[in-house]
Amino acid sequence: MQICPPALPGDVQLDEQGRLRHFLDIQGLPRALLTDILDTADSFRGIGDAQVKKVPLLRGRTVVNLFFENSTRTRATFELAAKRLSADVLNLDIGTSSSSKGETLRDTLFNLEAMQADAFVVRHSDSGAAHFIASQVTPHVAIINAGDGRHAHPTQAMLDMLTIRRHKGEFSNLKVAIVGDILHSRVARSQVHALKTLGAGEVRLVAPLTLLPSQVDAMGCRVFTNLRQGLKDVDVVIMLRLQKERMDGALLPSEGEFYRYYGLTRETLAYARPDAVVMHPGPMNRGVEIESAVADGPQSLIMDQVTNGIAVRMAVLSMAVSGQTQKGAA
Amino acid sequence: MQICPPALPGDVQLDEQGRLRHFLDIQGLPRALLTDILDTADSFRGIGDAQVKKVPLLRGRTVVNLFFENSTRTRATFELAAKRLSADVLNLDIGTSSSSKGETLRDTLFNLEAMQADAFVVRHSDSGAAHFIASQVTPHVAIINAGDGRHAHPTQAMLDMLTIRRHKGEFSNLKVAIVGDILHSRVARSQVHALKTLGAGEVRLVAPLTLLPSQVDAMGCRVFTNLRQGLKDVDVVIMLRLQKERMDGALLPSEGEFYRYYGLTRETLAYARPDAVVMHPGPMNRGVEIESAVADGPQSLIMDQVTNGIAVRMAVLSMAVSGQTQKGAA
Amino acid sequence: MQICPPALPGDVQLDEQGRLRHFLDIQGLPRALLTDILDTADSFRGIGDAQVKKVPLLRGRTVVNLFFENSTRTRATFELAAKRLSADVLNLDIGTSSSSKGETLRDTLFNLEAMQADAFVVRHSDSGAAHFIASQVTPHVAIINAGDGRHAHPTQAMLDMLTIRRHKGEFSNLKVAIVGDILHSRVARSQVHALKTLGAGEVRLVAPLTLLPSQVDAMGCRVFTNLRQGLKDVDVVIMLRLQKERMDGALLPSEGEFYRYYGLTRETLAYARPDAVVMHPGPMNRGVEIESAVADGPQSLIMDQVTNGIAVRMAVLSMAVSGQTQKGAA
């Protein structure tokens, strides 16, 4: 795993005026752009509460959900985000499509592009897949990374940032702990880049040694292998999902032992600040990385994250496709 | 099987003003509400015949089809109903979704709710699933039962009622026979409750003893094991699908024998009134429970039932989500 | 294989005023109607380039994609075409639907019709399936053939005609070569009928004897078994996909040998006119029937074909459903 791959040229994701063209990775994006995304998402937050949850920003545009890896939840939130922007949505499950007829990925992409899609939302089990696709398509097609291998999951990171900002305000005042299976987590990698770029006061990684990447020092975070020490006085606790399906037995003695040492419980949460908030990208393994009483408790923002996810995806889609931000560029 | 479970508190399905909040079961709903549904559905019947089959009642609302059990036909009619109300529709096949990642049903529901869905249309193989889900979600999400186990299928029953009323008028004048596999049928159970509530003159159940529920006496219907006697002078014949996939061999000697004793043929239909109408919820087993000449004959309303199904689903969705009825509550 | 089945009565596809009612096969359609389709499609070509890719022609109408055979690409282009006409689209994968409950195809169709669909787009592995369905439904439902067995693929042929006309103008001046697996190709059959009807100067079929239909003489084309001779001085080269999955080993020694004798390479393309254009219906087998340098070269119109495919499908859907053509009949 490369938790810190060589920096990507910023211009892959931005156009000459510095506006969002593709959304592939937090790394390489300037703080002002991340703030723009958060501001734009904030303006969309109200729409979900209204009876008519639609704005006409992407009316007549086509958004293609290109999922090489199954993910009902992420696909659903992107589909809702696109529909609430009034776009037409095409769901393509590429696992069962013409790849079975021997067509190359490049030909599949060219075909989709020729259908005059405006954006592809890409989920793929290979790290770097979204970057590869962005390098292949013509400039008028926006690529949104919906998770690629262990590399990045930038819309997840931004919805986490939106959730933190709405509840805790300025990042510079905050201590944030990311807890759990850092090694296998594209979410953690994107969160670290987002928190660093937005100027978080302190970012901590809390995990057993076997679940920390070997290059963890290069990430510029404080590393803890003891949960209680890692949570001490933090404002935000972000739990990660234990990626059971990606793990071979060697890294972890048992789920029970993981819970005992790294599970977030009422007892361990008490080490954090009394007003600390708790987050989790879902789906949760209750009783493995988090106690139900905490997941459903007053400090949990887990459901709020889902709602913010639609707003962030609306922001990213509208900015990359129409150049529409809070400040109204066109 | 509980053909007559303990009555449910009416307020699960109704709000304080007696308006529809969830649509889970016919049992417990007052006659005036069922009549409201029929009147509202009647007003939507014309829409399907128009070139523009859309009304803006649910524009900007999100309807999630949450199918834990596959049903192309029912899913399609709910999808069309929601789209003709101008809602956005999200189809989720929960069998293949994050439940495989170990998420609990409750977490899946909370997630969908956090996506700010306005209604879940639920199909599940467990009796009571829709009630359980209604007990979990917040009041602003409407749950529509699209069939749960052997318990209820209330939109099917209401489309049958609409079909009867449009062709036969007042229920109090009518003798209605429900014929076939009563034991396994959620449709039959909902039909009995609907016919009773709407004041049908006489409701008959016609089946072999092995396909009658043990508590059949409590249903307040006349029971016949002889088809010809059961059909004598009835105005409406409702055939049930023989649920072959739910039956073990012990209950039924053979399909051929079932057809000989309980199949609706031109000969057996002649026992009913000459202007009797024939209905079937589909999909039909031709030559098992019904003769093709009857299914396609002049007394058959089977295709009309499908068309009425979309109108009834539009009525239930619009009433539960927006409070919109024929009389114009809001 | 019947490459020239008995002519079908024209009135299956046309109404009494000669307007398009179903679109099943090129054969039997008059030249004026094919020209109408091309003119209407041309008027839709601009829409794909606009930001708002929608016209309200089929607003409130329902288009059902009825795919008995999987085809992501064709399904996607029909779905986009219908959505850009503002229709509601229902995707039904009939392989996994109520046919498994023992319902007959006829009952499935009647049910879909009773849902008041305006058009069925049908893909089926059996030749004649779309004709059969058209013979079953009532006149107000339009059937569009999206490929049936080895019989026809008329929208593919018309998108090819649109591509040729936009780049080469009048058909009467053109020599067109169709190269490859003619025997198994519904595309080739429809192309020949379209080119003949539109008055192409010369139509050539180029294939090994084992991949030519036995009745090839009746098709009214010049036949070549030598690629270089077949390409000599042609204006248009249409390569066919090698239908590997339909072929048993006996017809073809090996893919390598096919490429050596019938593959379109820079070297073999040089036999055609210098301004010849190259087309392929996709998905391509690169290095089997076509060299990548040709597929991606300056003479290739392969991506243009995909874009034209949406315009042609919009034309056919709007003409068959609403009677709307370039000339504005209603």
UniProtKB/TrEMBL annotation, chains A, B, C:
<dbReference type="Pfam" id="PF02729">
    <property type="entry name" value="OTCace_N"/>
</dbReference>
<feature type="binding site">
    <location>
        <position position="123"/>
    </location>
    <ligand>
        <name>carbamoyl phosphate</name>
    </ligand>
</feature>
<feature type="binding site">
    <location>
        <position position="156"/>
    </location>
    <ligand>
        <name>carbamoyl phosphate</name>
    </ligand>
</feature>
<feature type="binding site">
    <location>
        <position position="74"/>
    </location>
    <ligand>
        <name>carbamoyl phosphate</name>
    </ligand>
</feature>
<comment type="subunit">
    <text>Heterododecamer (2C3:3R2) of six catalytic PyrB chains organized as two trimers (C3), and six regulatory PyrI chains organized as three dimers (R2).</text>
</comment>
<keyword id="KW-0665">Pyrimidine biosynthesis</keyword>
<protein>
    <recommendedName>
        <fullName>Aspartate carbamoyltransferase</fullName>
        <ecNumber>2.1.3.2</ecNumber>
    </recommendedName>
</protein>
<comment type="function">
    <text>Catalyzes the condensation of carbamoyl phosphate and aspartate to form carbamoyl aspartate and inorganic phosphate, the committed step in the de novo pyrimidine nucleotide biosynthesis pathway.</text>
</comment>
<feature type="binding site">
    <location>
        <position position="282"/>
    </location>
    <ligand>
        <name>carbamoyl phosphate</name>
    </ligand>
</feature>
<feature type="binding site">
    <location>
        <position position="241"/>
    </location>
    <ligand>
        <name>L-aspartate</name>
    </ligand>
</feature>
<feature type="binding site">
    <location>
        <position position="101"/>
    </location>
    <ligand>
        <name>L-aspartate</name>
    </ligand>
</feature>
<keyword id="KW-0808">Transferase</keyword>
<dbReference type="GO" id="GO:0044205">
    <property type="term" value="P:'de novo' UMP biosynthetic process"/>
</dbReference>
<dbReference type="GO" id="GO:0005829">
    <property type="term" value="C:cytosol"/>
</dbReference>
<dbReference type="Pfam" id="PF00185">
    <property type="entry name" value="OTCace"/>
</dbReference>
<feature type="binding site">
    <location>
        <position position="73"/>
    </location>
    <ligand>
        <name>carbamoyl phosphate</name>
    </ligand>
</feature>
<feature type="binding site">
    <location>
        <position position="153"/>
    </location>
    <ligand>
        <name>carbamoyl phosphate</name>
    </ligand>
</feature>
<dbReference type="GO" id="GO:0016597">
    <property type="term" value="F:amino acid binding"/>
</dbReference>
<feature type="binding site">
    <location>
        <position position="186"/>
    </location>
    <ligand>
        <name>L-aspartate</name>
    </ligand>
</feature>
<feature type="domain" description="Aspartate/ornithine carbamoyltransferase Asp/Orn-binding">
    <location>
        <begin position="173"/>
        <end position="319"/>
    </location>
</feature>
<feature type="binding site">
    <location>
        <position position="283"/>
    </location>
    <ligand>
        <name>carbamoyl phosphate</name>
    </ligand>
</feature>
<feature type="domain" description="Aspartate/ornithine carbamoyltransferase carbamoyl-P binding">
    <location>
        <begin position="21"/>
        <end position="165"/>
    </location>
</feature>
<dbReference type="InterPro" id="IPR006131">
    <property type="entry name" value="Asp_carbamoyltransf_Asp/Orn-bd"/>
</dbReference>
<dbReference type="GO" id="GO:0006520">
    <property type="term" value="P:amino acid metabolic process"/>
</dbReference>
<dbReference type="InterPro" id="IPR006130">
    <property type="entry name" value="Asp/Orn_carbamoylTrfase"/>
</dbReference>
<comment type="similarity">
    <text>Belongs to the aspartate/ornithine carbamoyltransferase superfamily. ATCase family.</text>
</comment>
<dbReference type="InterPro" id="IPR036901">
    <property type="entry name" value="Asp/Orn_carbamoylTrfase_sf"/>
</dbReference>
<dbReference type="InterPro" id="IPR002082">
    <property type="entry name" value="Asp_carbamoyltransf"/>
</dbReference>
<dbReference type="GO" id="GO:0004070">
    <property type="term" value="F:aspartate carbamoyltransferase activity"/>
</dbReference>
<dbReference type="GO" id="GO:0006207">
    <property type="term" value="P:'de novo' pyrimidine nucleobase biosynthetic process"/>
</dbReference>
<dbReference type="InterPro" id="IPR006132">
    <property type="entry name" value="Asp/Orn_carbamoyltranf_P-bd"/>
</dbReference>
<comment type="pathway">
    <text>Pyrimidine metabolism; UMP biosynthesis via de novo pathway; (S)-dihydroorotate from bicarbonate: step 2/3.</text>
</comment>
